[in-house]
Amino acid sequence: MENFAMSFDGGGIRALASIQVLKKISQILNQKGLNELNVDLLSGTSAGSIIALTLSRKEFSLKENIETLEKVFNTFESIFVKNTKGDNPLYLNSGLKELGDILFEKRKLKDAKIPVAVYAYDILNAKPVILSSSSYPNISMSEAMQSSCCAPGFFSPIKITEQKIELVDGGVFANNPILYTYLEIKKLFPTTSMANILSISTMWQPTCLNSDKEIIDEAKLLSNGQMRTSDLIANSLSDLNYYRIHKFNLENQIKMNKTDFETKQKLIESGIVMAQENIDKINSFIEKLFQRQKV
C-alpha cells in the first residue's frame, strides 16, 4: 500500500507563492473530475501550518479553502501588530491569535477531515514537537497554528500549561518539514510500502557569505544547513517519493514580514512560475493519487 501527503514550508508572506502551486493543483484535480485532496496527511511548518490546518477544515471544499488562504496572506500584515514599547519581541501575539480563532473557531486537531501535523519547538524541554491529530488530538487548531508560527524575536512563545511545554516556530528545526512528514506517515501507516510526499517551498534563498564578512548570520546559516540536509536525506530514502516544488528566482530573500503590495505581487507571479516549472512533478504526484482512488 502506498500513502500520500502534502507538506508546506514556513516563510511568512512567502507562502503566497505556495498558494499559487495549490491553485494549479486544484485546476488539475478539477480536470480529472475531482474536487478534494484525497491525501493521507497534511503537514506544515509556521506559515505552512496555516495552509495545512486550513485545508483540513471539514466544512469547506478545496476551492473554498484556497480562497480563504488567498485572503489570509493578502492581508497578512494584520498579524504584525507592533509592540508599542518597541521591545523584543517585535510584535504582539494578538494578531496571530485573532487569525487562528477566526480561521479555526473551536476546532481541535482531532476534528481535521484529513490527519494533520504541524511543527513547533519546545524551549522548556529543548526538543521538537509534532502537534498532530494523532499525538495531541485535544489541542485546538488555533493554538497549534500560533505555536508553529511564533518566530523567536517576532512573537512571544506559546505556553501550553497542561502539556508543560512552551513553543516557538517550527522553522527553528524544520522549515521544510519533509522528514517529519515522512515519519508521521510511517507512524500512521506502519505497513506502507511507499510514502509519496509533495513538498511545496516558499522559495528560500541560500545565504552566501564573503570570506571577509565579520558578522556571520548564524540563524540563516543553520536554516540553510537544515534545508539542504532535509533534501539530501529525503532524496536518499528508498521508500519515499519526494516531489519537491521549489525555485530560486528572487534576487534577495524576502523577509517573512515584508507585506507591501509590490512584494505580494512579485510572490504571486513567482509562485505561478514555480508551479509551471515543476508541472511534471505536480502531474506525477496527482496521477499516482488519482490511480489509487480509482482502485
List the helices and strands and how they pair.
Layout: E1 2-8, H1 15-31, E2 41-45, H2 47-55, H3 62-74, H4 94-104, E3 116-122, E4 127-132, H5 141-149, E5 158-160, E6 165-169, H6 171-174, H7 178-188, E7 194-200, H8 218-234, E8 240-245, H9 261-277, H10 279-294
Parallel strand pairs: 1-2, 1-7, 2-3, 7-8
Antiparallel strand pairs: 3-4, 3-6, 5-6
Helix pairs in contact: 1-3, 1-9, 2-3, 2-5, 4-5
General description of the model:
Strands 1, 2, 3, 4, 5, 6, 7 and 8 form an eight-stranded mixed β-sheet that branches. Strand 1, helix 1 (15-31) and strand 2 (41-45) form a beta-alpha-beta unit. The chain contains ten helices and eight strands. The radius of gyration is 18 Å and the shape is globular. It has helices at residues 15-31, 47-55, 62-74, 94-104, 141-149, 171-174, 178-188, 218-234, 261-277, 279-294, and strands spanning 2-8, 41-45, 116-122, 127-132, 158-160, 165-169, 194-200, 240-245. By secondary structure, it is α/β, with parallel strands linked by helices. The longest helix is centred in the N-terminal third of the chain and has 17 residues, at 15-31.
How would you briefly describe this protein structure?
This protein has 295 residues and is an alpha/beta fold.
